[in-house]
Amino acid sequence: MIIFPAIDIKDGNCVRLFKGDFSTVEKVASDYLETAKDFETAGASWIHMVDLDGAKEGRPVNTKIYTDVAEKTDLKVELGGGIRNLETIREYLDMGISRVILGSAALKDPKLVSDAVDKFGSEKIVVGIDAVNGMVATEGWLETSNVGYIELAEKMISVGVKYFIFTDISKDGTLSGVNVEQLKALSDATVGRANIVASGGVHTIADIIACKEMGLYGTICGKSIYKGTLDLREAVRYAESK
Description:
Mean pLDDT: 93
Number of domains: 1
Low-confidence stretches: none
Strand order of the largest sheet: 1-4-5-6-7-10-11-12
Distance between the termini: 10 Å
CATH architecture: Alpha-Beta Barrel
CATH topology: TIM Barrel
Largest sheet: 8 strands, parallel, barrel
Oligomer: single chain
Helix content: 25-40%
Structural class: alpha/beta
Number of strands: 12
Order of helices and strands: EEEHEHHEHEHHEEEHEHEHEHH
CATH class: Alpha Beta
């Protein structure tokens, strides 16, 4: 299993939110590049980055920050936020971003996802499914749909998507533990057809153990690292163990 330490960017700063609420923004680190290098030193091979300004505005905003991390570390960068067209995807991939995350587009513009997989390959495209009470939320979590999270995953698998990030918004930034029930339901429904990454609520090594026991592809860790409730080095070591 892969551990994805996370850096969310708002106004050029490394921040975390509570349940996706922009009014709860909290600065968690002073320097994004030093933070990324610390993740690398701890053994991480990937980093999960989100352009929160981009998610809100529907366009790339903090591009230099992500390309800096891609250029100045050996980390593979997985990036989401404000990616709404093929041109933006191409530009990010050309700049050295390893994987781009399509969130709102999966629900609102499924053809974009299908075209992106066809054009750039399934290894480069991740669909982020963010849910409230099992229903998909969009537009930086500001809107909730009437589509269930497993239903959306099935639709995306049908157009060639292989990688998914599932976030239970009610858990995000809360340090209250991952939503094992919903993650297991998604994993069981898509077994052998999709790679699932857990996001939201990671608190201690117990969450990493739970995700690995479910056979998940990866786990995103944000606030738990910054608050010190999870040791990244220990998490990576356990996740990569046989």
